[in-house]
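Render this sequence as a predicted structure.
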Amino acid sequence: MHGRSSHATPPPAAGVVRAPSPGARTTSPGAMGPTPASMTHGSPGAAVVLLAATEAVIARTRPDGRDEIARVRRRTRRAGAPAFHLRVLHELGDRSPIVVLGGPAERTAFEREFVAVSHRPDRLLEDASVHDAHPEALLERLRSLRSHPG
């Protein structure tokens, strides 16, 4: 038969677990919560990020529609922890639009990292107005972002 086997592969024996085939969807063994593959699809909302001297303060919309503040410390005691900007990107998730506040050099460095990882510069909004660092002011800015037409 031209070099092909005419025998079907036998089914696995009872209690034997086969490894998933290449390309099969699996769950990461290190995942402690929802992974991008298991999260609901669609944009989870907007975010406002303030890059401060000791931490990043992130006002974001949760998947259930409520607003919250998340904080990412610049320094971490965890060995092998990702860099500060990557940890902030992780907290942002797949949100859009995003306003980044902070000093010009810090904003530029973060925006470059964001574009390098996401390849989505269109998700960043420019906002040159004076900013209040208080969390309630960030939440207010987040609420006004939701009414943004873009």
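Summary. The first helix runs from residue 84 to 92. The radius of gyration is 22 Å.
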